[in-house]
Design a protein that fits this description.
Structural class of chain A: alpha+beta
Strand content of chain A: 15-25%
Radius of gyration of chain A: 22 Å
Largest interface: A-B, 72 and 72 residues
Number of strands of chain A: 12
Distance between the termini of chain A: 25 Å
Helix content of chain A: 10-25%
Largest sheet of chain A: 5 strands, antiparallel
Oligomer: homodimer
């Protein structure tokens, strides 16, 4: 998994699922190191920003700003990295005439930019300055390839079968202009200006090689807003992410990542991302009283505990009946249908951002979930769960899947390598 | 000015202009108090959220979540309150048939909701739960009345002359559908879910009395992303807010707020907000090399220092010539034209959010500044500065004013009072 370094981060990992991030605690307690600029410089971090601080400034960056996510590693960053407060998803199509050569050059530029920005350094070749003053702020930049990328680059013989189009779901109302794409980039950071800065740098790097197909903005809780790290809450007010596989699970790696020796070989250490823009029909949802909402979900709103009792991490008692003779967790409750034990074990890691794009033409909130889930194989991860939800989920009437993407996200780059090099140069 | 309470907040106030917020430090150092739930409960704070924490949970909220902005006071919150990381601006028009009575009832509902949410408590009558787990997170909710409000409520004899329409500026390209409005609400918080939660509660309270006219989302830096509190930076990468009047200035109150005994009487302690959606033409701006950008602004990008030398707070030497015989701060530099000393002293407090609504139909970023400025009189604050900028500002070619609003924001409510009561019930 991706590694982070520098100082403690209060909101680092959701309590459950515990993302067991190892950290090099270079700063230890905030304030223990006199000149953060120097300390970060020594760590290859935000040294480039020292210039904006007067020489006598000994205020260290707090953990929010100082946390750095590693660019190099077995896996790309932004998969097991703790959820950040700001996210941008952006898809590009290669320009007419651009092929494998241009794609390789673009991936090389993007990788150099990602490595620099994630270390808290400026982008090469004219930085916009928007991230000046801030530390890396847990910035992660993640790159993926869509189905059409392999046609455009004449690499169809190396296209993974896992990129075969997702099946149609009856409740889909997908907008093709906001779906798919040759290339996909996920940006996350705990500071909105750091994230925007990265987004602009990635767009500029695209140059004449690729144009934006669609772009979406999302958010999560700010580090420190809750007293203890919590599983994320979505805009329906529901805890969202309970039961996610944990890196400490014996089968975590095999469920989420393509193994060494897996097929295709260039995807070793990689993962597949399913991206869905899921509009929440909040005007309808908020008309339901809380007990009704809880029956739709099958869990308590306050703490995510199953209606059958316990706390968020207690196993659901799916066969429990109430005094009224009805199932306590209704037959069509979202949590029952999506439960890992009902789907051959959890085979995807959900890592979503909320979105809110203001008010739609019909007066309803254009808000919901930028659902992103990660798996070694979408046919064993997203597809079976969504197929079941599509048939009988009590939550479905309150959701609308408006856009969809499926991307092959290669393994993390080794030092000196760019993302996707094993595909594009072998 | 508005007061905040609870624990320390690392990012509390920009270093310059220093907003001299007094705080009751109830928690002192984070961690010094065993059970934050209890401590906050005792303070009338986030006690209602104790239910979601197991009884043995002694993790205190961090300063980001625990900071509470006071609803009651001489002035409304959200004016001298330190900038929050998330902002929502929303304007409403009274419904056909709704008048003074309905407006008074709405202001009463809104005030009750604002008081409760700003204290970290749920909204009455069915809370959506979106803010569960989080503390108040510096939430502020601010209410204002537009010019048309006084016609709708038949209170034209009490309408302040300060609400007379702003003059036309030659560079304006205003969209009337996103401008004006009978009622205006500004929401700010250091957590995006807390802010969204407040937005939905305010919308629900509007009920049949008022409908949304327009709504905009903005953001600023996350508390802790920088090593020390900094003046805000905008999406052009420029430090934005230098030279703002400071509460410690002798004439701060008289420049920003309507005095006791001022006219109209119901505006005592109030202020006027000018709101502009200023699109930044970033594709053009980013093509300029940094030295050219700095000549447009008249300040260094890195630290906001005038090109004539010093640091951010050094006075500009407007008559300094360079070795090339030209003015170091060019004649049309933004900072020169907007300089307080060029405009009879700074008479407005700028307090903006950045916005980024994705990519526009023409492929350019739909991003820029939700400019909000506060003053005792727009004719002495915003208008003269904007008139000068409109004529000769080197920055103008990179900006587009797309929407505009002007609102009378009454003084803060006393205990038991609702915002605007002195207008609506006397």
């Amino acid at each position: 998994m991706s590694e982070t370094k520098n100082s403690e981060r209060p909101q680092a990992a959701p309590a459950e699922p515990a993302l067991d991030i190892s950290r090099r605690k270079l700063l230890g307690t905030v304030g223990a190191v006199g000149a953060a600029g120097l300390a970060l410089g020594a760590a290859g971090g935000a040294g480039a920003y020292a210039a904006v601080q007067p020489p006598d400034d000994t205020t260290p960056l707090t953990s929010v700003g100082a946390t750095e996510v590693m660019f190099h590693g077995k896996h790309q960053a932004g998969i097991t990295t703790p959820l950040q407060s700001t996210g941008h998803l952006i898809a590009f199509d290669l320009a007419p005439g651009a092929g494998r050569k241009e794609a390789a050059a673009l991936m090389r530029r993007w990788s150099a930019t990602a490595e620099s920005l994630m270390a808290g350094k400026p982008a090469g070749g004219g930085d916009t300055g928007v991230a000046l003053d801030a530390g890396p702020s847990s910035l992660s930049i993640t790159f993926g390839f869509g189905h059409s990328f392999f046609d455009r680059t004449r690499l169809t013989d190396r296209r993974p079968g896992q990129l075969d189009p997702l099946p149609d779901f009856s409740s889909d109302q997908l907008d093709p202009r906001r779906s798919g794409g040759d290339l996909w980039v996920q940006i996350g950071a705990d500071d909105a200006l750091v994230a925007f800065h990265a987004l602009r740098a990635i767009q500029r790097d695209a140059g004449a090689a690729a144009g934006v197909r669609w772009q979406m903005n999302g958010f999560n809780r700010t580090p420190g807003a809750t007293g203890k790290p919590m599983t994320a809450r979505n805009l329906m007010g529901q805890i969202d992410g309970t039961g996610n596989p944990k890196p400490s699970d014996a089968d975590f790696e095999q469920r989420i990542f393509v193994p060494d020796g897996g097929q295709p070989d260039w995807m070793a250490g990689g993962s597949y991302a399913v991206v869905r823009r899921i509009r929440m029909l909040l005007d309808s949802w908020e008309k339901l009283a809380q007990p009704e909402q809880e029956k739709v979900i099958g869990r308590k709103k306050s703490n995510g505990a199953p209606l059958s009792g316990g706390d968020e991490n207690t196993e659901m008692r799916l066969d429990q009946f109430g005094p009224d003779g009805k199932l306590v967790i209704p037959q069509n409750a979202h949590a029952r249908i999506a439960a890992p034990e009902q789907n051959g074990g959890a085979a995807m890691l959900r890592r979503a951002f909320s979105f809110h794009d203001g008010i739609a033409a019909d007066g309803s909130p254009d808000a919901g979930l930028l659902f992103v889930c990660w798996q070694a194989d979408p046919i064993r991860g997203f597809v079976p769960v969504q197929r079941k939800l599509d048939r009988g989920d009590a939550l479905s009437p309150f959701l609308r899947h408006e856009a969809s993407g499926l991307f092959a996200v290669p393994g993390g780059p080794r030092a000196g390598e760019y993302v996707g090099q094993r595909l594009l140069e072998s």
